[in-house]
Each structure stands twice: as C-alpha cells, then as structure tokens.
Specification:
- The complex is a heteropentamer of chains A (145), B (130), C (664), D (341) and E (331).
- Chain A has 145 residues and is α/β, with parallel strands linked by helices.
- Chain A has one domain: Rossmann fold (3-Layer(aba) Sandwich), CATH 3.40.50.
- In chain A, strands 2-1-3-4 form a 4-stranded parallel beta sheet, sandwiched between helices.
- The two termini of chain A are 25 Å apart.
- The model of chain A has no long low-confidence stretch (mean pLDDT 92).
- Chain C has 5 domains: 123 residues, Rossmann fold (3-Layer(aba) Sandwich); 184 residues, FAD/NAD(P)-binding domain, CATH 3.50.50; 82 residues, 2-Layer Sandwich (Alpha-Beta Plaits), CATH 3.30.70; 166 residues, FAD/NAD(P)-binding domain (3-Layer(bba) Sandwich), CATH 3.50.50; 68 residues, Alpha-Beta Plaits, CATH 3.30.70.
- In chain C, the strands form 12 sheets. Chain C has a 5-stranded parallel beta sheet, with helices on one face. Chain C has a 5-stranded parallel beta sheet with strand order 20-27-21-22-23.
- The radius of gyration of chain C is 32 Å and the shape is elongated.
- The model of chain C has no long low-confidence stretch (mean pLDDT 94).
- Classes of the chains: A alpha/beta (145), B mainly alpha (130), C alpha/beta (664), D alpha+beta (341), E alpha/beta (331).
- Chains C and E meet through α17 and α19 of C and loops of E.
C-alpha cells in the first residue's frame, strides 16, 4: 500500500479503553489492514483527552488527530463521551475558524464490536489527511528536521 | 416511488413542516376528527399515504376539502405529527398543480357578505389565487 | 531515573511473523531509562514470566514494558508477574504490537518500525509512572432501602436473609406500596394481597429489618461502604411502640371527611387512620392537616378512646442518623396526572377513571367492597371502554405525556377486561389499543384468552374524544382495521395512564449524587451489564424507579440488587482502583467545574488552610476526590482549567510523553 | 552634515539596502512597527513603534544551543545564527539611549556574545523628534529628543533630510550614501531643534525630575509605605517590561523537540510571580515586592551600579500600554514627591 | 456622557463609608492625564473626594479585584458597570469570593471611550479631554481643540454592547438598562464567511504580533487559576515566550478554551492588548458556537448556572456537524 519515500501522514488516534481500543483490537483479530502511520494511544475514556493533547500532537509533527470513543449512550462511565462531544465540537470549530484544515481532526464513535469500522475509519481518515499534505499550519518548526 | 412523486412528497413535507414518519399509527387523529364520515381518506390514512408517496389519490379526493382545519388532530396527536398541516399542504399542492388563478382580486367585492368572516376571504384569496 | 526492562514477545509467529522482534529489542535498548531488553517466544508462558521475574531482580528494575498482545489480553498477567517479583503492578506498561501492529500490517519493515515506535511510547510513559497502591476503605455492614413497595420489601428481605441489618424508609404510614392497592395480578390472577401481605409480615418480623415508616431521607453523605444518612421520622402523633393497631380510634374519630388516598380519593377516611387492614406497621397515624385537636386543640377523642394510651399530640419530627454501607433506591412509580387530557373528560365525569382506580373499585377491600359500579351513581356499568397508552408513547408534549412505553398497561388492561367479563358476562368490554405488547412468560397467552375466551373487543385504534351525555359517556374512536369511526355509548371509561417515577426520586438522586435520565428514572451503571447499580458506587436500583416494570420483573431486579448489596457488605474492606483522579490542592481554585462533570459524585469541596509563601495562612476552597468513589474516567481532568486535577496512571504528562514519542 | 531631499530618501534606502538589511518603522493598523525595507516601503512618521527596537539586539526569544544524544554521548550544537550586517533606521532619541543602557549590562564582563554579535553587525540611524506627545518624558533623563545620538543622526524637515555621523560606523554609512546626499550647513536643523525644545517645555510631564531617586536611595525608598497603594492594582502582566526599551531580564529554558533539547533564552518580566525563581522558591513573594523591584531597579539600583545612569529613557510606551494605567511616572510623582518633603 | 457622575458615586461611597457599611471603596483614581485612571482602593474620605473619578475612560472591570479584596478585613464597596456585573456573577458561580464581604453598587454605563480612537481622531499630544454632553472636547499640542462625538470613539466592546443591565448589585444608582440585541457576532460571522486560507492568513497576522505579556490573561475575570498552566513547569505546556508561531496559537486557543462557557464577553482582553490583537473574536467564536450548538447561554447572567462545557444533552450535535455549522464558508 505504502510506497517507500512517498508522503505518509502521521496520525495519532486516542482510543478509549472500553470500546474503541477493543474495536482496534478486533480489527487486529480479524486481520483488517489499516495504515501503519496510525498510532494508538489508550485513554480510559475519550473524555480524558485534553485539547492540549490534540494540539501537542500537531506540534510534535502529527498530521491528523482522531479521537475514538464509545457510541453516545454507551460510555462505560455513562457520560464521558458526551463531554468529549461538546469539547471537541468547540475545539474543532475553533481550529477551523483559525484556518486550520478541518479534515485534520475527527471524532469517531467505535464500539468494541466495530473492528471493521475502526479499520475503515482509519483508512479513510489517513487518506483524507494525506490529500491535505503535511501539517503546516499547526506545526512547530523546532520539532521538525 | 418515481422521481416526480418523490419530489411532490418532499415538497408537501417541506411546505407542511410535518414529518409523517413520526406517526405510530394509533389513529387518534381519525378518532378525534369531526369530519371523519365525510372523508374517503381519513386523517390517519392521509398521513400514511403522504409517507408512502401515494399522493395522487389525495390530490383528487373530496376529503381534501372536507377537513375543517379545526386542528383537533394536531392537538391530540401523541407524536406531534400534525395531520391537518399535511392536509393543508396537499391542498396547496393541488392548487399549484392546477396552476390556475381561481380567485381574482376583482371578483372579491362581489363575493363579500356581511356574515362572511374577513379571515375566510383572506385565506381563500391566499389559497386559490396565484 | 527509572530502570526499565523491555520484554518483546514473539507470540510464536503471530508477532515475529511480521515484526523483527530482535530488531525491536535491540532498538529499544538505547531508549532513556532502559537497562535491559530481551525477546522471547511466549512472554506469557511460565518460562517467559520467569525471564521477567529474573530480570526484575537481577537488574533492579523499577519499571517494565512488555511488547506483546493487547493489554486486554495479558496486562493482568504481567502485572501479577511483576508483583510476584516485588515490582509494583502499576509500573508495567504494554506496547500492543500484535493486534495493533503485526496483525494489521504485512510488511516486515513497516511492522518492525511501528513496533519500535509503540515500544518507545510505552517506555516514555513508564518513565513517568509512579507506583500505585489501591486504597482501602472499611464497609459499614448495614443497608438502607429507600421505598417500601414490593421492590424495597424484596430487596430488604433478601439482604436480611443473608444476615445483614437493613432499614426500610417509607414515606407512607405503611409499607406495601402500589402492589397493596392492586386487586389481582397478571398473568396468574392470584390476589395481590394474598402474595404481598405475607411478605410484609415477614419484613415486620425479621430481626434484621427495621422499618421507618412515615419517614424520609433528608441527607446523605459519604461514599460506598460509608454512607452517613439522616432520616426524618415525621411525627405521627401516635406512639408506634405502644399502639396495638386495634383501630378503635379510627372508628371514633369525628373527622370523617378526609379523602382516602389509599382508595385514590374514591371514599373517605378519618383524621386518624390506618391505611388498610394489613398495614405494616399496623399503627394509627394522625393526619395533622385534618385533625381538629392538632389544628385548634378542640377534640381529643382518640386519646380518650385509646386504651393503650398511644396518642401523643405533642410528638415532634425526629431525626435519626445512621451509617450504611449500601443504599438501595426503590422509590417506585405513580400514574401521571390526567389533568391535561381534556379529550377524555377525566375531570368532567366521575365515570372516567384510571386503571389504578379501577383496581380499587374491583378490590374486595376497596370503596365498593369489590362490586364493579359506576362511581357516579353506583349502578352496574354495562359497557366499559378501556383506553390504552394514555400519556404513554407521547412525544408531542412533555407536559402532557411521556415518550416511553409504560410497559405494564397492556397486561393489566387485559387483566381488567378479562376479570370484568368473567364476573359480569353481561358487560360489553372494548379495549382500544395502538399495539398490544405482551413479551413475557405466559403474557401473550393471557391476552389471547381475554380475546378468545372472554370475548373482549380489542379494537386497533385510539379514542379521540369522550363526552358525557346524560348518564352515558359518548366515546368517539377510530377502528383502523375497519377504517371506521366508532361511536360507543359507554357507562365507564378506564384510562391506562402512563406511569412516571415518584416525585421524591429527583431530590433523592441529588442527595445520592446518582444520575437520572430526562424522565427522572435512575440511570443504571451500564444498560446491559450493570442494570441494578447506579453509576455512583454503593447505590443500587430496585424496581420501577429505574424504569417501568411489572411485578415479576420488579421482584427479580429487587433480588438482583440485594445480591449486589450482599456482595458488597460481605467484604470487610473495599479495594479501589488506584487509577483515580486526584487534585493538586495548591493549584486548585475551587471553581467546581470538576464536581459538575463527575458522574459519580466523587468530588467534594473542603475549606482548607494553606500556608502561603509569605508565611501568612489563607483558607481556600479546594476539590477533594474520594478515591473509593472515583472510577477514573478523567472527565474532571479536562474540565479543570488549571490542570490541578490529574489522573493516576493516565497523567497528562504521561499521555503527552506518549504523544511526543509517537510523533518523534 | 549632509542632506538629501525627502524625495531622494527612497534612493538612500535603496543604497543602504544594497549593502545591509535595512529595517525601518512602517505604519500598520495598530501602530508602527519595524519592518524590513523593500522597494516601495514607506517610512512611518509615527513618534514611536509599539515595540522598541531592542528586539534587534535582544530578541524576545533566541536559541542558544541544542543538545542531541545518541547512546551515551551528548552532542552540543551552537544555534547561533550567522549574522549579516543590518541597519535600523529612524530610531528615536530615547530608544537610542536605551542601547547604552543595554550595552552596560550585556557588554560588560562577562560579555554576552549573542548580544555583542548583533551589536557589532547593526548600525543605528536615529531620527530627531519634532512632535513629542503627552507621554514623553525623555528630558527627565537628560535626553534631547531633537538631537538624537546613534551611529548616524537624522533630522527630517518638510523638504529635506539631514545626516550627521557620530561614529565610525556612521561615517561608513554616510560615505555609502554620499552619492545621493550633498553637503549642507545645519541652519535648518538648528531651527527645528529650537522649535522642538520649545514644545518639550510645554509637555505635561516637562516638570518631572529624578529628584529623590538615584544611587544611595535604597534604604530611604525601599520601605516607603506608598508602594502598597501603587502596586495594589497591578495585574502582574508583563506589558510594561515587554514594551520597555531598557528592560533586559531574560530566562533560559530548555525545549524538548523530540529529537533533542533546544536551549533558548527569552524575555522574562520581574512582574511575573515565577521571576528569578530559585531552588528554594521565589525571593519576591508579593506583587508589591515585584512591582517595587521594577521601579527600584530602574531608578535606584541601576544608577547605583552604572555611574548614576537611570535605566529609563522616558519613551512613554508603558504609560500608553499598561492595562491599568500604572506607570513609572506615577511612581516617581508619588515616591519622589515624598523624598522632597 | 456617562449618566451617573463621579460626584454621585463619591457621595454614595462617602455615605457607605460613613455609616460603616463598608470600610473601603474600589474605584478609579485620577491619573496624570485626562484618560489614565488607575483602579485603586480608597479608605480615606479626603482621598476619595480628591482623587476618585468616574468618566468615559473608566473601563477597568473591578470584579476580579474582589478575589483579593474579600480576603481582607471588612466589607468593600465596588461599583459595577453592567459588563462587570456579569463577571461578578460568574466569579460567584465559581466560588471565587465571599459575597458577604462585598457591597455592590450597580451603575449604568453609556459605553467607554477607546483612547486610541480619540488619538486617531484628534491627533497626537493630548493635553486635556473634557466630557461635555455627548461629546469630548479634546485639547492637543498641535491642533485646535476638537469636539468628538463619543459614539465615534467608543471602544469596540461598547459599540457592540450586549447588555446594559446590571445583573448583580446590592443597590442600583440610576436606572437599570436592558439586555441588548447586540451585533457582537458580526465580526465573527465575517471571518466564518472567509475561506480557510483567508482565515489562516488573518489570524497568522494577528497572532504573530503577540508578545506574550499575558495582559489578556491577567486581566481576565475568568482567568483566576491559582497557577496558570502556561506558567506551570509541571503542566508540560508551560511557555514563557512565543518561540514559535505554534506557541502563539497554542496559548490563544487554550486561553480561549479554558474560559469557553465561562467568558462573559466583558472585552477586557482586547482592551488591554498592547498589540491590539482582537482577542474577543476568539472568545466570541466560542460564545457564538455555544449559542448555536447548545442554545443561548450567557455566562454570569445568573449565579450558579451550569456552564455549557460541564453540561451535555444526549442529542448534542457531533463535532463534524459542529465544524460544518460553525463554518459559513462551507455552509
């Protein structure tokens, strides 16, 4: 899939422990391919993801950031993903307002049973970010090179 | 549903602002309707027929003009479907389809009658003129 | 600086097939903090675990990273391994190089590169890990059940049977709840009193159970295992321990015109009353709003006739403070008000009644002594119309009805219809329904019997209007299958009113910091897997306060809640999950953001004195997390603008270190 | 003294820009700021830039070095940028004076080589003021706004621009533009100076003096009760220090890039609560102490260590920018007035 | 132009000092010029009479000072303009000071003047400004006296004033105004209508001027953390200077995010920015989004209201829908 030397966007995926991380595991169990430049960070709940983490990822060279959590209503902690939904809605809207490509950020609800959705989401998201090219608008030049 | 019907259905849904899918088929609209016996298509059927795109018969039905627009069905419907608004929208569609100017402004003075409410004139003019 | 060991697992060929494990363990050797790195065929095997244990001892490891399968598979295994070798379990991190690497990539080079990065991220995290020790808290071995209906009774009995003391708090003068008002129960048609009252007696006689009737919970503090509760015992002006329940006072009381709530106001009671014959406790209660003695000091008949001398007009409300380990909410339901349903003429005609009123009318102990009569004129009704879904499944107006299905109405209406036809075969019975929902053991058979054997007219359609006309009720309805509008002259109309949670549930939920849905039903910790627990630890749910339920379901949930309570009370100490939030008090400004997002009510505020750098002291309001209650979701950490709130095991710095390592 | 016509000024700029990077103040929506000259750039006539020209020699943030590790070795990489010659044009008398104050700090032993590098490569062309405003009080510190120092001094009249070299660098630059300038007497300049000095006398702060401040006043002023009132509404932000041409405090910090560590320095402000934070904590715990530090430093400590030179040049930026309108003038009026009593 | 005079306020303050209701007064103190009032605490009647000022240049919002003031002995008198009263409530919602230790007097405000606009209109070298009716008579060094209509030189936040209603006070001087139908989101909308590239260029230009003086944060009544994450070396995001354009954005995004749902839109951040960065456009974007996504919410309108970011409904819109909705360019 990836040709060597070709531009590969770096994707950071925050996955909640209960649904999405398990969904990612299921994608693995079913041997569903998705790009290797997707790297997963486990968090207890999507609501643990601070906007600062999202910005940090971009600063350090990520080209896209995706948050995955339980479907609304299915949160292991009952309400965590509802807060995530509000926080990220506002954060992403703000990033878009500042002229940062909106395709670089995403929230997706992936249940533990949705291995196929996880893989498909990652494929599609990586493709969308790849189409934008390198993240230039939220980069920190000191972290490049 | 062919494209034309689908468009017509969408138009009616748009004009009425009613979402017929919300109907749970309880029939309370028909149970409450004072003009029920005059209609060949009853309020609950009306909703269902719009939902399924079976609008042609409605356009040509007498029922269309039997509805008193008393809004009892709107008031009683447990799902907030508002059948009377659908009836009104289908009426408009019928009028528009005919494309004719049924009522000209000049005709109105002749029609005036002391007992006729002003509102009826205005609403008739709105409905039946182009 | 940590001393970290890295253990790369081949998982046979599962990992080693796509990841050059040797290269991974070599590459990770040079990461900061790493003092040992190796790889092995099966790290989870005994031999693999021995490698880990030896390395921990030999290299004095303070932390370790296992590059292996998903932590969901073997994190617990490796934590135990670490603990066995004397390393704190929470100093273990897993790099998931199987499910999230070797299994999803095909190219060896790509897989190896990714595995190295995942390993580096895990190492970056371990570098910031700190040993965590789960907290412990004692358990008060006493349970509180709030609500004395069948749900509360069953829960209390089960807990008491297991040997734990239980208190029931009931706002009414007697336990028994809604079930005590019912006549027969579906689908077996046994008499409600016959199966309920023995249980009420069991409660009264059980040494482990205390009943606080005519009481309410006013304050709840504390957390799982350690609740401090204040219960207000309202003055009933009768000494409970003295009253023999002979009932003489209730016969002699001159104030006869008090609507009897037990019979839903269909008859009257006295100012001093015992709700019904089998009440538990069987003690009289004086209604202070109706009693002349209490209102203006003119009467005193009851005191005169009471041989036991139980009357005490000077009695005061009493506050009881008790400690509990677990609390069960069993606050039950009520039918909704019919005031907004003008179309059914409920407020216009006495002969339009709710189903619960119908229960009382057919109950042998009810206002008509079990004779089915019209409330208006006492005549026998010959045509009865039952209307289902009155206010249920109503999405149009939140003030009028409820969006949900009330679940029990289909069955009790079938029961009413059947019993009517059985007792009075000359009566025509119509049931108007939208759908008949009978998913339950023997439920559909029951409903079909009503139709097939008892000749009840089930009509698919809704009643649109009920208009009193002379001594008849003109019912206008639709018959959807016949496509007809029907006009029925009925003698009695029975409305299957939707049910809603009891009004006391909302303030109780606030006290318990238990969450509720928009309909004021208590939310369960998980809709499928933890249906009888509230998300707030130590709070359990029993019966209709969690959602509409019939009796069998209520009883099974009640017992399930009891089982959960017993499970909790059996423990001497509670061991918590150490990955909980904690607040850095020096940075906390007490703004309450974290408290508001906490689904468990784990955060409280304390005023604490701080020594300022300039040697003055200042009292500040700061957040304090109860580790026994916190479940570690982390919602508070993001709500906190100053970063005072952080999460053990998933600290901001740790996550950022992972981000950095991945994005390098 | 040489001169050129105002029209010829663009040619002068062009000539200067051939040999060095030329910066000059340019008007923007929100005040003037120094920009790199390109053909067509118009010089601002604004009295002053929002940020002072100290940035050219002492930038807000500057990378010093980078550390990279591989295995057990650490490589230290000098991050000093190769400096090219540059000219800063249009610096006002007060700001020119600020370089003297900074030099005393950075060029004294141990010499700050990063600063020295930039000083060496930079030539300052000053510009005499003709329209001082109410916030100006440079004369309090003995600065003559109509006769600015710098490598090369300039006066702009309605028709011409006059140049006078003061240093070797200035001579060199003047020589470089000899082709587009001509010799001239100083009549016009003298006249302009006279006029400006007259205006200076009419300024509301013309009567402000340094009386009561200076070397040796520490004991007298340190515990003055007025500090409390003066500092009580201070927000503790860094605006005054960051717009100040003479504030020279900095912090050295490390930034982990993921590949290594960049050591950089950046401006710090004595108004910040973590300023000069040491292992034991912070020596100045209250905003009062921090506030006092800033003004005592400018008006007492600095002159004590630097032959009586005050480290304020009266540019007035802090007067215009302080969110709560507290400033050195109010301090001098309150505390200095007290010394009189 | 202000409907209440300084004299009226002084008399009220003297009365409250005199009858012992308060022992000090938070007010604006006369400066060197006509426009540079400093917030000050007056404990002395003479001082109050001589130096207390209230005019069109008294923009400073006092509510944040109450955090420190209420830790002192006795009750403090504070004058609250409508804007300030929202901040006052928001601070109370967040338990930031003891209400019992404040006596709040609500005062009407006709809008405050932006001195930089006056300078633009009247020219440099302002010697004196006298407020007369609805105009300002400006005396300058270089020009003849000019009369400027106050409306022409109002601060941006006052041009698009959201409310003239004092929402918190123990006592009100003058008449209370109403919540206004403000045009405050027009600028935000304009930006939303730009293309992504235009927006990026706009903000790049604005934010690159930031000198990280922290004035916007330090003046903000919603920024009351014991220690800001940007000052805290342990937070992992500490930064002191804008060493890279990323840090400008990081600081301003997070600053605005941390006050999202708590910002009352008092406009102090933009007022104090020495570089005139329109910081309110960031805060207002959040306010506008919150209003549009979750229903109208005005922080500080009432004490104890639940801020939108610590709240939710089960059918909130998805982040992708939100981005679409908040982006007029794509709508």
């Amino acid at each position: 899939m990836q040709v060597k030397g070709e531009y590969k966007p770096l994707i950071v995926a925050f996955c909640c422990n209960w649904c999405s991380y398990a969904g990612a595991d299921l994608a693995g169990n079913n041997r569903l391919n998705y790009p290797d430049n997707v790297k997963i960070i486990k968090v207890p709940c999507s609501c643990r993801v601070n906007p600062m983490f999202v910005l940090r990822a971009f600063q350090r060279g990520a080209d896209g950031v995706i948050l995955c959590g339980c479907h609304p209503g299915d949160c292991h902690y009952t309400s965590g993903n509802y807060y995530t939904r509000r926080r990220m809605a506002l954060l992403f809207s703000m990033l878009n307002y500042l002229g940062i490509e909106k395709e670089r950020t995403r929230v997706e609800w992936v249940s533990a049973a949705e291995g196929a959705k996880f893989a498909a989401t990652m494929n599609e998201f990586t493709e969308a970010v790849a189409a934008l090219g390198e993240n230039k608008r939220l980069e920190d030049l000191r972290c490049k090179k | 549903m062919n494209k034309e019907t689908e468009n017509l259905r969408k138009e009616i849904v748009r004009i009425s602002g009613v979402n017929p899918v919300k109907c749970m088929r309880c029939g309370k609209c028909s149970a409450t309707c004072p003009a029920y016996d005059e209609m060949e298509y009853h309020p609950h059927q009306f909703v269902y027929m719009v939902e399924s795109g079976d609008i042609e018969p409605l356009l040509n039905s007498k029922s269309l003009y039997q509805c008193l627009t008393c809004f009892a069905c709107v008031d009683r419907c447990p799902r907030g479907v508002e059948p009377a608004k659908l009836v009104e929208a289908v009426r408009l569609a019928a009028v528009r389809k005919q494309g004719a100017n049924h009522l000209k402004a000049d005709d109105i003075p002749a029609l005036l009658d002391e007992d006729l409410p002003q509102q009826a004139i205005v609403s008739a003019f709105r409905k039946y003129s182009k | 600086m940590q001393r970290i060991g890295v253990f790369v697992c081949w998982c046979g060929s599962n990992i080693a097939g796509t990841v050059d494990v040797q290269a991974v363990s070599e590459a990770l050797k040079n990461e900061p903090g790493v003092v040992f790195s190796t790889n092995y065929q099966y790290m989870c095997s005994q031999a693999g675990q021995d490698i880990i244990k030896n390395a921990i001892k030999e290299h004095k490891l303070t932390g370790m990273v296992v590059c292996s399968c998903s932590p969901r598979m073997h994190e617990a295994t490796f934590r135990k391994t670490a603990a066995a070798a004397g390393l704190n379990s929470y100093m273990v991190e897993i790099a998931n190089i199987r499910e999230q690497c070797s299994w999803v990539h095909k190219d060896m080079q790509i897989g190896t590169e990714k595995a190295i990065i995942l390993g580096k991220a895990a190492i970056a995290k371990v570098n910031l890990n700190a040993p965590l020790v789960p907290g412990e808290s004692p358990v008060t071995k006493r349970a509180l059940v709030i609500g004395g209906g069948i749900a509360g009774i069953q829960t209390a009995l089960d807990i008491a049977e297991a040997g734990f003391p239980v208190d029931i708090v009931e706002t009414k003068p007697t336990i028994g709840g809604k079930m005590a008002q019912l006549d027969k129960t579906f689908p077996t048609l046994d008499c409600a009193a016959c199966i309920l009252t023995p249980k009420m007696v069991d409660v009264a006689q059980n040494e482990n159970i205390r009943i606080f009737s005519y009481s309410e919970v006013t304050e709840v503090k504390g957390f799982v295992g350690n609740f401090d509760v204040k219960i207000k015992k309202k003055a009933r002006y009768v000494k409970e321990d003295v009253c023999t329940g002979c009932g003489l006072c209730t016969e002699k009381c001159p104030q006869k015109k008090v609507p009897n709530e037990f019979n839903l106001g269909m008859d009257n009671r006295r100012a001093i009353y015992i709700p019904f014959a089998q009440a538990v406790p069987k003690v009289a209660t004086i209604d202070p709003n109706a009693c002349n003695m209490l209102k203006n000091g003119k009467c005193g008949v009851c005191a005169k006739v009471c041989a036991a001398g139980a009357i005490d007009y000077k009695q005061q409300d009493e506050i009881i403070e008790e400690k509990y380990g677990a609390i069960v909410a069993a606050t039950g339901f009520n039918p909704i008000s019919m005031d907004k349903f003008d179309e059914y003429a409920y407020n216009q005609s006495k002969d339009v009644i709710t189903s619960l009123e119908f229960e009382r009318l057919t109950n042998a102990a009810g206002p008509s002594a079990g004779k089915l009569i019209r409330p208006s004129d006492g005549k026998h009704p010959h045509t009865i119309v039952f209307v289902q879904c009155v206010g249920s499944r109503c999405a149009a107006c939140a003030e009028k009805g409820k969006e949900y299905c009330s679940k029990i109405c289909c069955m009790y209406t079938a029961k009413h219809a059947m019993l009517t036809r059985d007792k009075y075969p000359d009566t025509e019975v119509y049931v108007f329904y939208i759908d008949v929902r009978t998913p339950g053991k023997n439920f559909d058979e029951f409903y079909r019997r009503a139709v097939e054997e008892y000749g009840v007219h089930y009509i698919k359609g809704m009643v649109g209007k009920v208009a009193p006309e002379g001594d008849k009720l003109m019912v206008q309805a639709s018959d959807l299958l016949a496509n007809k509008q029907l006009h029925i002259a009925a003698d009695l109309v029975v409305l299957a009113a939707a049910i809603e949670p009891d009004k006391s549930a909302r303030p109780l939920a606030t006290m318990l910091t238990a969450s509720m849905d928009t309909n004021d039903f208590f939310t369960e910790a998980h809709p499928k897997l933890r249906p009888v627990e509230s998300p707030t630890a130590g709070i359990f749910l029993s019966g209709a306060c969690q959602g509409p339920k019939d009796i069998p379901e209520t009883v099974s949930q009640a017992s399930a809640a009891a089982a959960k309570v017993i499970g909790l009370l059996c423990k001497d100490k509670l061991t918590g999950n150490p990955c909980v939030a904690h607040s850095n008090e020096l940075m906390c400004n007490g703004c309450s953001s974290c408290e508001r997002v906490c689904p468990y009510g784990a955060i409280t505020y304390i005023d604490k004195e701080f020594r300022m750098p300039d040697r003055t002291t200042r009292v500040r309001r700061v957040a304090s997390v109860n580790p026994a209650v916190c479940q570690g979701c982390g919602a508070c950490t993001v709500a906190c603008p100053s970063g005072a709130m952080d999460l053990n095991g998933f600290a901001s710095k740790q996550i950022m270190a992972e981000v950095d390592a991945i994005c390098k | 003294m040489r001169k050129c016509s105002i029209q010829a000024l663009d040619t002068v700029f062009e000539t200067i820009a051939e040999a060095a990077v030329l910066y000059l103040p340019v008007d923007g929506d929100n005040g003037a700021s120094y920009k790199k000259w390109e053909k067509g750039t118009v010089m601002s006539n604004a009295l002053n830039t929002v940020r002072s020209p100290k940035d050219f020699f002492f930038p807000q943030s500057e990378n010093l070095m980078e550390f990279r590790t591989s295995g057990k070795t650490i490589e230290v990489i000098d991050k000093r940028e190769e400096k090219e010659d540059f000219v800063v044009f249009g610096v006002r008398a007060c700001d020119v004076k600020s370089f003297d104050i900074l030099d005393r700090v950075f060029l004294n032993e141990p010499c700050d080589s990063y600063y020295a590098d930039r000083r060496e490569h930079g030539t300052i062309v000053s510009m005499a003021c003709t329209r001082p405003v109410e916030t100006c009080f440079c004369q309090t510190f003995g600065i003559d706004a109509s006769n600015p120092a710098g490598d090369l001094s300039c006066w702009k009249t309605e028709t011409d621009v006059y140049f006078q070299a003061n240093t070797e660098k200035g001579e060199k630059l003047l020589a470089a533009i000899a082709g587009v300038t001509e010799e001239s007497d100083d009549t016009a300049v003298k006249a302009q100076q006279e006029k400006t000095r007259e205006i200076m006398k009419k300024l509301p702060l013309a009567d402000l003096t340094t009386e009561g401040f200076g070397a040796g006043k520490t004991a007298e002023l340190f515990n003055a009760p007025e500090w409390k009132e003066l500092s009580q509404s201070c927000l503790g932000c860094g605006t005054c220090t960051f717009v100040c041409p003479t504030c020279q405090c900095y912090d050295i910090k490390d930034f982990k890039t993921g590949k290594g560590v960049i050591r950089f320095r950046c401006w710090d402000s004595c108004m910040y609560s973590d300023f000069t934070k040491m292992a034991h904590g912070n020596p100045r715990l209250s905003q009062l102490e921090r506030f006092r530090q800033r003004f005592m430093h400018k008006l007492v400590y600095y002159p004590e260590n630097n032959d009586g030179v005050y480290s304020c040049v009266g540019c007035g930026r802090c007067l215009a920018k302080c969110p709560i309108s507290m400033n050195i003038v109010k301090v001098m009026r309150t505390i200095g007035g007290k010394a009189d009593e | 132009m202000q409907k209440v005079t300084g004299e009226l306020l002084i008399n009220k303050a003297l009365e409250l000092l005199d009858n012992g209701t308060v022992n000090r007064v938070l007010g604006w103190k006369r400066g060197e010029f006509a426009y540079d009032m400093t917030p000050a605490v007056f404990a002395d009647a003479e001082e109050l009479k001589n130096n207390f000022v209230f005019n069109d240049f008294c923009g400073a919002n006092f509510s944040k000072y109450l955090i420190a003031e209420t830790r002192k002995e006795g009750k403090v008198l504070v004058f609250l303009k409508p804007c300030d009263s929202y901040s006052f409530n928001q601070l109370l919602t967040e338990h930031r000071f003891d209400r019992e230790k404040v006596y709040a007097v609500g005062i009407p405000c006709e809008g405050m003047v932006d001195i930089s606009k006056v300078k633009k209109a009247a020219g440099d070298g302002i010697l004196d400004i006298v407020c007369e009716n609805d105009g300002l008579v400006v005396k300058t060094l270089y020009d003849t006296d000019k009369v400027i209509d106050c409306k022409e030189v109002l601060a941006e936040r006052c041009v698009s004033c959201k409310s003239r209603k004092c929402v918190a006070y123990d006592e009100l001087l003058g008449e209370n105004g109403d919540v206004l139908d403000s045009s405050r989101f027009d600028e935000v909308e304009k930006l939303e209508k730009m293309t992504e590239d235009e927006r990026y260029a706009f903000w790049q230009n604005e934010l690159s001027r930031c000198i990280r003086c922290n004035a916007c944060r330090d003046v903000c009544p919603a920024c009351t953390c014991e220690k800001c994450v940007f000052d805290n070396p342990d937070s992992g995001v500490e930064n002191k200077a804008v060493s890279d354009s990323f840090e400008e954005k990081m600081f301003h995004i997070i600053r605005a995010f941390h006050v999202a749902g708590r910002c009352t839109d008092c406009g102090e951040c933009s007022r104090v920015c020495p570089q005139h960065i329109p910081l309110h456009l960031l805060n207002r974007k959040f306010i506008k989004d919150i209003n549009e996504f979750y229903g109208d919410y005005q922080a500080g309108a009432e004490v104890g209201s639940r801020a939108p970011l610590v709240n939710y409904t089960v059918d909130d819109l998805e982040p992708s829908e939100a981005v679409q909705k908040g982006d007029a360019d794509n709508a």
